[in-house]
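Standup notes
- DV: blocked on the single-chain target, sequence here:
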Amino acid sequence: MAKKVSTKKEEIATTNESPVRLDVDVAVEQRLVALYTLQSIDSEIDKIKIIRGELPQAIEDLEDEIAGLNTRIDNFKNTIAETRQAIATHKNEIAEHEEMISKYQKQQENVRNNREFESLNKEIEFQQLEIQLCERKNREGEAKIGEMETHIADAKQLVEYRLKELAAKREELTDIIAETEKDEERLMAKSHEQEQYFTGSDERYLNAYRRIRNAARNGLAVVTIDRDSCGGCFSNIPPQRQLEIKMHKKVIVCEHCGRILVDDDIASRAKEQLEK
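- DV (later): unblocked, structure below
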């Protein structure tokens, strides 16, 4: 872990091979090295998560689908139970209508005139229509039950298939986690260790790093300059801005994407820090 030191200034002699860097702020340099080191560690953690791919989300989607299928099966079963209850009710109604028909037919045997006979006959016809209506509803109910049972069978078959698929993906994820867990734990410890560097007033740099990293799609909050461009958004960095970045006198961010910019020297020092 980089150790915080008091701010001091140093001059780097001019050579023919490298540009002049005057009044370099050592504390700023160490802060930049710590930020890029933290970024490198977190990027390695991101790679491990990428190796796992979309398995966690796929597993969650399968679990949701299975839960939805089971809910659908329960709804079908409830519909079948309600339909059977309705069929039983209609059968009781049919029995009652048949009793009424029998009653009216007996009454027809003792009628005194045609008007009474016709009146009873209409009542019989009405009861017969009611019976036909109940029978039609029962036929529809039986057809509905058959349809629901077919849906239940299909849903159960799909649940069985999805359960096998879920078990396979869980096993695959478990294997991947087992392979990468130690590396991830080691890197997480290093990341936490590096964060300890940012104490007191320097904590604002850590908060800024986290904010930028969370907002960035690729998780990059600290980037180098690549071909005169920002390594995050690839926007052009003017020569004067590049010179300021190489001076290491302050933390500089990209004017376009807000990422923290460092030069190759800081990246090399961060690499050395990780290799220790």
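- Follow-up: DSSP finds six helices and six strands in the chain.
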